Amino acid sequence: MTDRLEGREKVTGAARYAYEYPLDDPAYAAAVQSTIAKGEITEVHADAALRIPGVLAVLSCENAPHLHEVPDAELALFQSRTVSYRGQFVAMVVAETLDIAREAARHVRVDYVSEPFDARLSADDPRLYKPDTVNPVFPADTEQGDPEGAFNGSAVRVDATYTTPAEHNNPMEPHTTAARWNDDGTLTLYDSTQGSSPTQEIVAQVFGLDRTHVRVISPHVGGGFGSKGTPRPNVVLAAMAAGAVGRPVKFAVPRQQMFATTGYRTPTIQRFRLGADADGTLNSIIHEVFEQSSTLTEFAEQTATPTRVVYQAANRRTSHRLARLDVPTPSWMRAPGETPGMFALESAMDELAFAAGVDPVELRIRNDTDREPESGLPFSSRNLVACLREGADRFGWEHRDAAPGGHWEGRKLVGMGVAASTYPAYMRPNKATARADEDGTFTVRIAAADIGTGARTALTLIAAEALKADADRVTVEIGDSSLPEATVAGGSAGTASWGTAVVRACESLRGKMNGSVPPGGLEASADTAAELDARDEYARHAFGAQFTEVEVDADTGEVRVRRMLGVFAAGRIINPKTARSQFIGGMTMGIGMALMEESVMDPRFGDYVNRDLAQYHVPACADVRDVDAAWVEESDPHLNPMGSKGIGEIGIVGAAASVANAVHHATGVRVRDLPITPARLLPLL
Amino acid sequence: MDSEVTPVHAEITLLVNGTEHRLRVDTRASLLDTLREDLGLTGSKKGCDHGQCGACTVLLDGRRANACLALAVAHDGAEVVTVEGLARDGRLSALQEAFIEQDGFQCGYCTPGQLCSATAVLDEAERGWPSAVTEDLRGDPVLDDDEIRERMSGNLCRCGAYTGIVKAVGEAARKTQAEEAKA
Ligand code: FES
Ligand code: FES
């Protein structure tokens, strides 16, 4: 139970985020967004802005420096006259102060020729196609047996379509970059990123620099939830601006502009067919997903992939179809794929439980499997059943009356729901160094990121254990691309991947030390690429079960979560204190997904209409009452030296279904379209 | 047009965390930008710049306020306490300690605002100010979990650290009350 190591800095305001580094005479950037969804820029009128005292430069497609092409076309800032979505950055102003820059941005006029566009996702769009792979490299479609035939021949059938809306990550710290070109031609970036090494590499490509000539510094990051996992246009904008005015430039994407330019979760339309025997044993699972990307970049979310993992069934099919629309580019948002996919699967399982007359917990236990259904690989460990049983026990599931609807407490309807969670235990190759000094202290270096996950603390505990030293003698340095190269904080793979490199570097150091440290100290390094290549083939996933009790106001349709408990099986938990916060944080975001989060596309403009925190609702303190997380002991020798699985995302997976299933139990109403707002629910009560 | 966009400046005085500052500010500048950019007090955060998240919460003349919604020029002579001013002589306040103990944050970006808000919550309860969930408007409000959740709902935390925040504020409230009872 170790306190967060940077806790003191964070509670005193001393922890610095990207915008907050003292820079010599900084200038400030403000961006201009396109007001059309598709078309060409004919002219950019900068003179009015340039006449304002304090304005240093206006940059747009008319005068921007040439950038090198990289796979993510979102980074080709001001490189063409083409507008690909409404809200795209089309110009910027750099000025002496933020107030001047913002004011001047309003005086930049952009003329366009507009073209017809389409920003509406539908399951019968003729432009839907099968992507080659879904994020990151999964097959788009899979099939085994005779899914249709088995479905048609099943005694109990569920055939339902679920939709999830676009959602925005909305980390509390906006996407921010402060950029400085140094006299030797190198570039320093203070950037709010989930990965200083990948950002370094991509920014170097964009500006045609040697990788070592870019340094990305990001010791503290105010959340990201995937949206800071890849460089966004803000980093290019700040660096370009700094080059243009020959001074350091700071740029934080205003909250309203984040909705178009920093990524979001794609909306999904998902049709599920489940066919089962009378006792609920699954014969057939068919999961068809329809989703969107922009015309700029193909981002195909892996929404159906959890369906390939969780339950047995001899006959099965999953598919993804993507429409490239005239919309902002979607990207990663906390458990991309698993989150919307498991909302649909776990809602459908709940429907099947009622159709078959089987208890929802029991139904899931009945369809457990000891091999990953589609690959046939054994699981390295799988304790879904233990999570279900333990959770049911702790939550008081046995007091639940099976019949849905009509559980009145005054004017409130009360109900309980359950859903399973799952998330892959990914690992990526990393490098680290470990150093021993004569005074008995150790320093471990790796370009890992702590975006609030507790990574700094967890890696320190991991290093201390490997060094057989007290944690207070160990310093772990992270958040800087000048440290040994590390992969992104994403895919819940951070601690497992970085931790392995840290352990190997520490082991190697101990081997060299042989009990003593010579004058000048000792250093050792590690690279885990070969180790990862040599791993045995297993299906590696974390599992969990989430239980929710809701009350529904029968007069207003308002749903409130009374209690929520997640029980997880995620290997060894490195630091219970920060781990609990990770699980609960994910579940809290899941409450938001279930009840309030929705980015509303206006197809007449091709843009999200709710674009601030007053209109895009995230859970507030009063929305989160009794939410708790627990875990079952799980020892898994096939993972990594720590025996850990990732925990940053699994908390949100299944959470929304758990809430929706509780709403059904309370009211008898099945809401298949998120979020479950009073406007949606009340007419059905 | 030029006349309307030429910056207008004004001289003001601010007493920030006990130190007096004489400043020349753009009359459009928010108190938040003034603290962060002019005074280098970057503890107060900007999450939305529109009064919707609470990350910028400071104590302005003793009461909590969103510094992004306050124009600096309108607060000439004001007394401001930011997160940097909550610890005394390097000693953390009971709230700051409780936030660490209860893990009332993850990324830490909302934390300065949460702490300033919570500092004011303790004070408001002490003065007997009711909230929307206070049942007995005559008695002194007791900071139970429902009261804390209601009073802290102006400060968003996207990391979802609310359960820890509520525990931390409760713990600090009990500690403060116990100390007062002793005194
Ligand atoms: S920054 Fe002031 S309320 Fe959000
Ligand atoms: S701790 Fe990250 S937003 Fe609250």
Automatic annotation (TrEMBL), chain A:
Domain (Aldehyde oxidase/xanthine dehydrogenase a/b hammerhead): residue spans on this chain: 12-116
Record InterPro entries: Ald_Oxase/Xan_DH_a/b, Ald_Oxase/Xan_DH_a/b_sf, Ald_Oxase/xanthine_DH-like, AldOxase/xan_DH_MoCoBD1, AldOxase/xan_DH_MoCoBD2, AldOxase/xan_DH_Mopterin-bd_sf
UniProt entry tagged with the keyword Ribonucleoprotein: no
Keywords linked to the UniProt accession: Molybdenum, Oxidoreductase
Keyword Nucleotide-binding among UniProt keywords: no
Top-level division of the source organism's lineage: Bacteria
Protein name: Xanthine dehydrogenase family protein molybdopterin-binding subunit
Organism: Actinomadura violacea
TrEMBL record, chain B:
Domain 2Fe-2S ferredoxin-type: 10-86
Pfam families (UniProt xref): Fer2, Fer2_2
Gene3D superfamilies assigned to the protein according to its UniProt record, in alphabetical order: 3.10.20.30, [2Fe-2S]-binding domain
Keyword Oxidoreductase belongs to the record: yes
Keyword annotations: Iron, Metal-binding, Oxidoreductase
InterPro entries assigned to the protein according to its UniProt record, in alphabetical order: 2Fe-2S-bd, 2Fe-2S-bd_dom_sf, 2Fe-2S_ferredoxin-like_sf, 2Fe-2S_ferredoxin-type, 2Fe2S_fd_BS, Aldehyde_Oxdr_Iron-Sulfur, Beta-grasp_dom_sf
Keyword Transport: no
Protein name from the UniProt record: 2Fe-2S iron-sulfur cluster binding domain-containing protein
Natural source organism: Actinomadura violacea
